[in-house]
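Subject: complex prediction, re-run

Hi both,

The earlier run crashed halfway through, so I resubmitted it with identical inputs.
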Amino acid sequence: MYRYDHYDQAMVDSRVEEFRDQTRRRLEGKLSEDQFKPLRLQNGLYLQLHAYMLRVAIPYGTLSGAQMHALADIAGKYDRGYGHFTTRQNIQYNWIKLEEAPDLLADLARVEMHAIQTSGNCIRNISSDQYAGAIADEIIDPRPYAELLRQWSSFHPEFLALPRKFKIAVIASQTDRAAMKLHDIGIRMVRNDAGEIGAAFYVGGGMGRTPMIAPCIREFVPVDQLITYSEACLRVYNRYGRRDNKYKARIKILVHELGREEYTRQVEEEFAHLLTQGIEPPLAELERIATFFADPPFETGLADDAVRSDPGFALWLDRNTLPHKQPGYAIAVISLKPVGGIPGDASVEQMHLMADLAMRYSFDECRVTHAQNIVLPHVRKADLFAIWQQLEAAGLGAANLDTVEDIIACPGLDYCSLANARSIPVAQKISRRFADTGKTAELGELKLKISGCINACGHHHAGHIGILGVDRKGTENYQLLLGGSEGDDTSLGKITGPGFDEDGIVDAVERATDVYLARRREGERFLDTYRRVGIDAFKEAIYG
Amino acid sequence: MVELLRFREDEPVADPAVTVDAFSDQSNASAVRLEPGDDARDLLPFLDQLRLVEINFPSFGDGRGYSAARILREAGFDGELRAVGDVLVDQLSHMRRCGFDSFAPEKPFSPADAQAALSRWPQVYQATGDGRRPIWALRHDAQSNG
Ligand code: HEM
Ligand code: SF4
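This time it finished cleanly. Structure:
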């Protein structure tokens, strides 16, 4: 894992002091709320329905045990005993007091963490593949590149007042587990014919009210030009992105309006110019960063299977663990989706337990996934049973990864000031329904995602089944979408028809899954059957 | 309260800055004012005659002027680059990094706040042409010096 040196630490410490000073000026009335807003937003502090919400950055989703412990302590000290892990691999606290926020940031800085640029119109926390460094299918660990970009984008003076927020994801495998093409910039590390590493750039993806899949604007940017190329992409956006209408201000609209070719031409021109400016860190810096991500000291000659005598454990093993690149090890996923629970929530005690498990069994590392779960990336298979037992005892043993119970949901009307409808209770009812009918396992991989409004924080466009909360004449109403995907075959879901009330949407989801069970062919997932038979068969069953 | 904060030794230009349109008509002015929608690159053929470029920030949230400033500096402009309009004290150090060397904020700030804002960052992560050595350069200096 990356560790701060004195330079990184000084930057984060300075930021805490800056924010302490800004908060003081706000509380003394020297700054108006209008002036303070962009400053607090660049430190992750939102004003929500009931209180301030603070979003903490978890760069590329990677955490040490000590950091997870610190997040737990913060949940106890400044919040009401919970943290909420988000689809952008971050954590949010929903009950923060402005006066205490500077102290909270200081607590974070002590464990090399921060809330810098987790909101506002700037480059946000950089996300990545949650299985980086552990999965066999990657060509290289994407995180050193993400860290290089993190440093470049932190306090980048030219890009702190962009037209709109800017999200970057970096992956390094053909399998996309980070919804890379739904980011403002998606980067896929690739190897060219000569065997050299480079970056393919996908620019102009996004969700929100106008979802778009990012087109590839360059197949191969050499690694020693990565920062320069990114800077060119951003500069063209900063200069020409729309600022007249905040709903048209994301880079996806610019790329769409200019067209991929014209946007690319402008980037290439800026890139050629910037190459003369000496802004690229030397490769030695990338190498320095990469040493932090070297493999941990894996043991060799370990047994490559786990004892399956306990049926509950066997279920969890099949559902929540993945093959590791190293024989004798597994990737284990802790589901934060207990049946009837709040997706992505973890209590202080649960966070401490996950931190302990990371320290004891996973080389002191864990990850946050964009599906709001936690990964123990490097676990000996022989330890899986002990881990599962401890998870079970803490209410963290749900064996439902990637199933219909593994729902992504945004905070919705329970917390969010922009919401049209509640998301959390819908998620709770759906997971209970499928747990009660016992169909979860039979349905297999089924990604269900819920947003409480058109901003799409819950990725509903990209769900095999998506649910969108809308406001219909003052009452909460839910639209159903089918056929979205955020994987390699990224696609956007289609609305089936008129919306439903809260119970109606749960029934509609169940009817959609019944169509799948009736019509599926050998080996087909829900999404495959949907793509083969088309939306009409589903509409018929849903609306009758 | 500071009304004009300047980081230059030379005498300030006395002439008022003209708009880009006016400049392209008469083009013997030595001071010009860029609005967010103007293309800084239109000025590049005239940099030798320009002694002051004002970049207007009608609203602090419109960051186009940061790119305009860097583009002028990258092209070798060494006259005065002044940020005017809704310039907030918390933006000072970032503006300095983009090449601004004078500030005429609409709402003047206190010298103490300006001083605090400017000395906030011990180091920087990026090379922006302002002469500061980024952290990555310092790191590798340190290594090669043993
Ligand atoms: C509760 C406070 C929140 C507010 C006020 C908020 C606000 C917004 C807004 C306005 C957008 C649309 C941006 C646009 O289209 O330009 C958006 C998009 C998004 N938000 Fe949130 N959000 C909140 C919480 C969250 C949470 C908890 C998550 C993660 C679970 C999240 C993840 C996202 C994602 C993934 C997008 C889509 C990104 C895209 O359009 O590319 N947000 N949010
Ligand atoms: S999707 Fe809408 S309701 Fe949900 S968190 Fe985002 S802004 Fe709030």
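The domain at 408-543 of chain A is CATH 3.30.413.10 (Sulfite Reductase Hemoprotein; domain 1).

- K.
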